[in-house]
Amino acid sequence: RRRLKPLRTVVAWRGRAEWDQVMVGLYCGDSRLQQGALDRVSAWKSRYGPKMPLAVDCTSELIRCKVLDSSGRLKSHELILSYGMALVRCVLMQWEQRGDVCWLLLQVDIPVWVVDLRHELTHGKLPRLALCRKG
Asked: Which cellular component terms (GO) are annotated to the entry (predicted)?
């Protein structure tokens, strides 16, 4: 009998060390380091294209909004739209994996008000910037 080789998984990052470095950078709170991590995620997207894991893409978009917000370069309505799109994608990503709001609330710990915020962003009036920031 021949032994089968384990299947390799192709990813956009070079290895575990690069992955860990980017994750630390995204969550560190220092906008300069966060921007560096966002630049690395952009490189991953260019390598991996539409196969980029949605969780990585959504996380980077939420962090990008925070970095843009702290830079003072965008107007209030531009920030609302940026945060809104990132939040909608993030909540929908979780929703699409199960298709059940109750599952979202219980298993992923997404608060009811965030699901309601997603609904408002998608179907209602744009909320205040403070609420988008909190989301």
From this structure: Las1 complex; preribosome, large subunit precursor
pLDDT digits 0-9 by tens, 45-61: 998 888 888 889 989 99
Instruction: Tell if the pTM clears 0.85, that is, is over it.
Output: no
Judged against a pLDDT cut of 70, whether residue 105 lies above it is answered with no
Instruction: Flag whether 7 is in a domain.
Output: no
> Which residue reads 């799109």 in tokens?
85
Spatial CA neighbour of 63 closest among 103, 33, 19: 33
Residue 5 lies in a domain: no
**DSSP codes of every residue in 35-79:** HHHHHHHHHHHHHHGGGS-HHHHHHHHHHHHHHHHHHT-S-HHHH
In which domain, by residue range, is 51 found? 13-73
Q: How far is CA 102 from CA 28, 32, 92, 99, 113, in A?
A: 31, 38, 13, 9, 13
Say what the pLDDT of residue 108 is: 67
Q: What is the mean pLDDT of the chain?
A: 87
Query: Does residue 1 lie within any of the structural domains?
Result: no
Q: Are 80 and 112 found together in one domain?
A: yes
